[in-house]
Amino acid sequence: MARTRNPLPRLMLHAFLIVLCFIMIFPVLWWFGASLKTMSELSLPTLFPEKAMWSNYSDGWKALSQYTFTHFYLNSFKLVITMTVLTTISSSLVAFSFARLNFPLKGFWFSMMMMTIMLPAQVTLIPQYSMFHQLDWINTYLPFIVPSALGSGIGGTFFVFLLVQFFRGLPRELDESAKIDGCSWWGIYFRIVLPLASPALVTVMIFSFLWGWEDYFGPLIYINSVELYTVPLALGMFVDTQSAMAWGQLLAMSLTSILPVFLLFFFAQRYFVEGIATTGLKG
């Protein structure tokens, strides 16, 4: 007679996970509920209002007199997508060089690059601003685009290290077979390494998009014109231009600002998890 398994431990585990999940998403639930409240209801200890104020979203979208949030979203998408593509390309090229090529002082230059991770961004802020000012790049997107194209943008060193670890896990025999067939290093990079490294590349793209989308400090330093403002700067201007703070509209707009990142991670999470799980494994 087969023994019947006790379902109690599994039920307790599921109950614990449900409670833990609720604790983790409670701030988002409160955030959503508060975005639908009136000013008088924000101080009440309730999660959702009695009557949802969906007008907070429509009013907040056009709360700034000169531009709507459509303009700021387009600015953010144009800038962040450009940065993401350029960062992925430049980081993969540098990582491929360190992982598969041999050149003088390779170990030294890799160590120097890794040391920049320990260098706080505040240390290089003034020299970078002075250099960009002399190049007449202030109030343009060039201080973000050019470093991304050179592999020194937001998270550039981390992305190079991540891809180096992934590339090192690919069998060297693939390179040797390709060379026998007459393939150059460029061919190996485009035809062999990049297709096999798609999970790691997607991981880099997700992180790059996330950090670029939520960057407030960089645009605050280099962008002066409201016409070029990104979504984080627009939210900051939203706060400054309200004589009587409309917290419901502000919370509504800040909630919509996380939707692109949420959707990106939702649809690319399989590649993201695969890229993180396989990085550093040896072939």
TrEMBL record:
Gene3D superfamilies: MetI-like (1.10.3720.10). Residues 73-268 form the ABC transmembrane type-1 domain. Pfam families: BPD_transp_1 (PF00528). It is found in: Cell membrane. SUPFAM superfamilies: MetI-like. Its main location: membrane. It comes from Paenibacillus agricola. It is a multi-pass membrane protein. Belongs to the binding-protein-dependent transport system permease family. The keyword Cell membrane applies. It comes from the Bacteria. InterPro entries: MetI-like (IPR000515), MetI-like_sf (IPR035906). This is Carbohydrate ABC transporter permease. The chain crosses the membrane at residues 12-32, 77-96, 108-129, 141-167, 188-213, 250-272. Keywords: Cell membrane, Membrane, Transmembrane, Transmembrane helix, Transport.
